[in-house]
Amino acid sequence: MTGHPPSRLAMLLLAALVLALFLLPWVAGRYPIYLAIQVLILAVFSVGFNLLFGYSGLLSFGQAGFFAIGAYGCAKILLAVPNLLLGLAGGVAAAGIAAVVLGILSVRHTRIYFSMLTLAFGMMIFSIAWKWRDFTGGDDGLVGIPRAPLEIPGLLSIDVSAMGHYYYVVLVLSLLAIAAMYRLVHSPLGLTLQAIRDSETRAEFAGVPVRKYRLIAFIIAGLYAGLAGALLTPLENTVTPPVAHWSTSAEPVMATLLGGVHSFAGPIVGAFFFFMIKDVIVRYTEYWLIWFGVIVVALVIGFPGGIMSIFAKRRLPWRPARPSSTQPDKPAASQRHDRISED
Amino acid sequence: MDNFAFQGLIGLSMAMYLWLISAGLTIIFGVLRIVNFAHGSLFMVGAYLAYAFYGQMGLPFWLAIILSLLGTGLLGLVMERVFLRRIYGIDEAYQLLLTFGFILILDDAVKIIWGGVFKIPPIPAFLDGSWPVFGRSFPIYNAFVIAVGLAVAVGLWALFEKTWWGRTVRATASDREMANAIGINVPWVFSGVFAFGAMLAALGGAIGIPVRVVAPGIGAAMIIQAFIITVIGGLGNLKGAFVSSLIVGVLSAYGTLFFPVFELFFIFVIMAVVLLIRPQGLFAR
Fold first, then answer.
1. Do A45 and A251 form a contact (C-beta atoms < 8 A)?
2. Whole-angstrom distance, CA of residue A171 vs CA of residue A162
3. Domain spans in chain A, listed from the N-terminal domain onward
4. In chain B, which residues have their Cβ closer than 8 Å to the Cβ of A117?
5. Which one of A112, A285, A316, A334 would you mutate to disrupt binding with B, by most B Cβ within 10 Å of its Cβ?
6. Is B96 close to A340, i.e. CB distance below 8 A?
7. Which CATH number does B2-277 carry?
8. Which end of chain A, N or C, is less packed with Cβ atoms under 10 Å?
């Protein structure tokens, strides 16, 4: 997760991939482009989520709340003012404000209590989306949201109503967001978050304001969720309450787990495989979730490092479940296992 | 006033389903330190098995419930011994993820077996009908549910306070290392407790079938309710789970009556406030 700069080969592959993504609309039809947009949105969502989960050790089950605020915020703006940039910026800003408020409260806890608290906050947002009919349209949601032009008054105005055009908006913004996150996790901020994750006590002794750093991670994850949600609105032209439900919060969790928690690219690779697996299974059976469940169980039991761990040069040891001051480097797995082993 | 009291009685019967599912959840957390995300799905499996034995095969109602408990208990045993056992050592996030995987599997499995359409089997004849209470007619079935819930509460209290088995489980919960040292077979206590918790969830699901809807989504809906209750009562606190089930059940009965729009919202507000102010639960000693 940390450390060595990417090799020249990796850089070449990355450049080829980005080029291929830019060329995609020339070779692919509407449906693959639609799917690619979905993958990019989930990638942004998951990369933000993994700053909290993989890098900071905080499992949030309420990210759908910020995703929904981004989506609804963008929708409300686009319905009033048809300006895409304004809609996206408004959605992200609204999600950011919510993340500040809920983050201050959430980072008071860690571990299971953090997960429970974020679940409660996410479901509060869901119940608002579902019940506040005058503002959110209730269970019908908001409909007829335009894929408004990309417009800066006096400077430029680009029509992005075609799927292929909108794809470029999503592609550019996702790549920028992912690149920014890459810089961020390799900055002192990212390293500090990992230090806190590995040993809160040690970080505190070193003078790190632990809670403040966790709050920063929480807000950034909220902004990314908001961006992902805001990007979804012009694609679908509607927003409905299920975007705020906890099952939406589970999507970045699954993508991240699938790709690998302990690698920067994990959530992105996972987002790709999430939609590929879903797309393939749905062709054969409507019961795709059962296979997803089987994959999740198999991954947790057999391959907790995700797809990216296959490529990893070395497997990182497990983060201790209960950091102990006496043997900080011994994986907790063996400690705990000794305690409850069969006899 | 009568209306108010009557609604409270309706809330009390709703509280009993919540109590049965959260009792299992909180016992499992108390002993295994695992938050079983799939506990709602065990509630759902219990409901479907009871439906299969009672509604489809036509077995007597009580027999269907017992078979459903045994079936779900067996499922819980398999989940614990084959899967959960392997990940006690690693980060608890993976326990949530693993049990989340079970939700996906069980939800679709019941759809494949029983279809996506909801079912309501008939109320057994001996529990059908109603009694006049507060000037209105109170279904006998609701009284039956309240009786079962209270009986389970008393039974659990007796089990944990008065029996050797209960003492063994409490010893394991408070210090598993020491329990191991004095000869308690801790792995089997874990399995037993998990299966027992699954059976409690199944009981909640099974007795609900004639009056609640048997549908694939009920597990996901119940687990959120059960989380709310176990959090308010304190994770691992059985008495707390009972009291907060009563509070949430009765409050939501009044909530749906007086301010239906914000009922769900306020329940999550209560959950968040408790987590922030008293994460150990309202009823911790």
1. yes
2. 14
3. 15-247
4. 272, 275-276
5. A112
6. no
7. 1.10.3470
8. C
Q: Give B261 to chain A, closest Cα distance, Å.
A: 6
Q: What are the sequence ranges of the domains in chain B?
A: 2-277
Taking CA atoms, what residue in A is nearest to B93? A59
* Structure confidence by residue, pLDDT tens digits, B139-173: 888 888 899 999 999 999 988 888 888 888 888 88
Mean pLDDT of residues grouped by 10 in chain A (343 residues)?
A: 67 88 85 92 95 89 94 92 90 95 90 88 90 81 82 79 87 94 91 86 85 92 96 90 86 87 88 87 82 86 71 48 40 36 34
